[in-house]
TrEMBL record:
The gene is queG. Residues 173-205 form the 4Fe-4S ferredoxin-type domain. It is found in: Cytoplasm. This is Epoxyqueuosine reductase. It comes from Euzebyella saccharophila. Keywords: 4Fe-4S, Cobalamin, Cobalt, Cytoplasm, Iron, Iron-sulfur, Metal-binding, Oxidoreductase, Queuosine biosynthesis, tRNA processing.
């Protein structure tokens, strides 16, 4: 076993020890296939008011522009599928936001992985990314064999579905590279048929400006009136296209205590949501990603759903 293979092996073992669902590695290079797709998507204004999606176009497609001398993109998945879910007949929030904000939790794990690499391998330069920089997470995860990008534009994995976060370490270390897996969506159109706002405009293409997650989180202005009655009681995010995906019948509950929901959350009725005060908001969502909408944003969403 050469040192490249040895390094690859110990990095993957450590990722597993840190609680990551899986780890795949691909060569840091220009994403040729994604470039025209991203350009077309942006030209059609499918990013809505997410202006940042149009920034750093080149960096988004080439990790070597983000990390000097980058050789490898280490992609990691972290499960967030909950053991218990909200009661039925209430306003809903995406399962990823049940517990504490994933950015901090994953950043901590990535830091530990970087420290492990420095200790076991030596001086390796690199950066950790968790959904907060111009990195095409799903494209890199697919390239490194962790799943395929499904018709709902989420990364899907045969054994575990899609309820997981994606993160990366981009490093200047040559490693063994994984190969992509095949697409297993077949003729299934469950996600397309179920989307309440018809945001999946064609297989593998989501018009972000119609997506309930965009409308309830990213959109800062008033919600467009033509979506009235179409948000399916989602107050923050949306899981419909994942909930109906046949591959998610293989989802297993996560083992990360920090992703467990605040006990009050699962019991909240529609009435509780409608009467939520800023104090309750701060208590229940103190460390949650729901804070992104702020109290005023959540109230706006709930008023729109009434």
């Amino acid at each position: 076993m050469n040192s490249q293979s040895t390094y690859t092996d110990i990095i993957k073992k450590e990722a597993q020890r840190l609680g990551f669902l899986s780890c795949g590695i691909s060569k840091a290079e220009f994403l040729e296939e994604e470039a025209p797709r991203l350009e077309k998507w942006l030209n059609k204004q499918m990013h809505g008011e997410m202006g940042y999606m149009a920034n750093h176009f080149d960096k988004r497609l080439d990790p070597r522009l983000l990390v000097d001398g980058a050789k490898s993109v280490i992609s990691l998945l972290l499960n967030y599928y909950p053991k218990e879910q909200q009661r039925s007949g209430t306003y809903k929030i995406s399962k990823y936001a049940y517990g504490q904000d994933y950015h901090h939790i994953i950043k901590g794990k990535l830091r530990q992985l970087q420290e492990f690499i420095a200790k076991e391998i030596g001086e390796v330069s690199g950066r950790a990314f968790v959904d907060s920089a111009p990195v095409l997470d799903k494209a890199w995860a697919a390239k490194s064999g962790l799943g395929w990008i499904g018709k709902n534009s989420n990364l899907l994995t045969q054994q575990v579905g899609s309820f997981y976060f994606i993160a990366e370490l981009i490093v200047d270390l040559e490693l063994d590279y994984d190969t992509p897996v095949t697409d297993h969506c077949g003729t299934c159109t469950a996600c397309i048929d179920a989307c309440p706002t018809s945001a999946i405009v064609e297989p593998y293409v989501v018009d972000g400006s119609k997506c309930i997650s965009y409308l309830t989180i990213e959109l800062k202005n008033e919600l467009p009136t033509h979506f009235k009655g179409k948000l399916d009681d989602w107050a923050f995010g949306c899981d419909v296209c994942q909930d109906v995906c046949p591959w998610n019948r293989f989802s297993k509950p996560h083992q990360e205590p920090l992703f467990n929901p605040h006990p009050n959350l699962l019991e909240m009725t529609k009435n509780d949501w409608e009467e939520i005060t800023e104090d309750v908001f701060k208590k229940v969502f103190r460390k949650s990603a729901v804070k992104r909408t702020k109290f005023s944003g959540l109230k706006r969403n709930i008023d729109f759903l009434k």
